[in-house]
Amino acid sequence: MRIIHRKPWNLPERLVTPEDIFLNRRGFLAAAAIMAAGKAGAEEAKPDPRLAYYPAAVNPAFRDAGRAITAEEDNTTFNNFYEFGASKRIASLAQRLETVPWAMAIDGEVEKPFTIDFDDLMKKVALEMRVVRHRCVEAWAMVVPWTGFPLSQLVSLAKPTGEARYVRFETFHKPNMAPGQKASLFGDFPWPYVEGLTMEEAMNDLAFMVTGAYGKPLPKQMGAPIRLHCPWKYGFKSIKSVVRVSFTKDRPVSFWEQIGPGEYGFWANVNPEVAHPRWSQDEERMLGSEERFPTQLYNGYGEWVAHLYKDIKGEALFM
């Protein structure tokens, strides 16, 4: 068989566009390109409406964490976000996270399940800034000026029934967007990421839903647009990018508890005297420096939360 290979420019006459149509079309495309560029420029120049919520007033009870605030540059470039990879340097990859639109489902033992858009939620809560400590189970620590609202406000909006004993949090599951969620990368990890608190913990004033940091909306690598922060617990309890909040009768089994029940438990309260099976917890290194501090029980917030655990027996409260 003879195969004829035509040159790209060697078109038969029947396929050649007449000159008058070509010129009109070229003018149309040029005008369209200018219009598109103008539209893109306008979109880029349009301010993020979420910026209007920041900065929020500082809650005087959380004005000083007893240590210097961690530099924003250090905080935003050193992140655990396994949905995007096991490296601490996932800030650029995390920009794939699509945060507009964003909605949270509220379900389980509530009067009426519902889904609320993040921007609608922001209109229903009172934002404040808190400067608080954060302690990772890996023995590094930081101090962050978070902006957000007490978790108790979300609980009130949810209207849980008397059957609710726990609050279960769940993040997104989008492997095409978040490469760490692909089975080939982390084997049989139980995506999506799940965490939980008791109702008593959820109603404690320290439990905080974070929407911003450093006086701005929360960066994607830090769990935008909304995450949990429990400063008296190890950081893995503070789930990022929440899409579902469920009120349950039964205790949730959290992500890391499923993976390593001998190393990570449900409670995960900070305690210097209870070592991780593979390292000590008696001190912590401040992120962005070599400065070290002795670890404090409940990360120094015992006066707020110690009473929550005084009657609990036979449980690994600090694991």
Descriptive notes:
This protein is of the alpha+beta class. It has two domains: 18-44; 52-309, Sulfite Oxidase, Chain A, domain 2. It has eight helices and twelve strands. It has helices at 19-45, 72-76, 118-122, 151-158, 183-186, 199-203, 255-259, 302-305; strands at 103-108, 114-117, 128-135, 140-150, 166-171, 194-198, 208-213, 216-217, 227-229, 242-248, 283-286, 292-294. The strands form two sheets. Strands 3, 4, 7, 8, 9, 11 and 12 form a seven-stranded mixed β-sheet that branches. A five-stranded mixed β-sheet has the order 2-1-10-5-6. It is globular and about 45 Å long. It starts with 18 loop residues before the first helix and ends in a 14-residue tail after the last helix.
Class inferred from helices and paired strands: alpha+beta
N-to-C order of helices and strands = HHEEHEEHEHEHEEEEHEEH
User: In one word, what is the shape?
Assistant: globular
User: Into which percentage range does the β-strand content fall?
Assistant: 15-25%
Put simply, the count of helices is 8
CATH architecture of the largest domain: Alpha-Beta Complex
Could you please say which CATH topology of the largest domain applies here? Sulfite Oxidase, Chain A, domain 2
In round numbers, the mean pLDDT is 89
Helix content: 10-25%
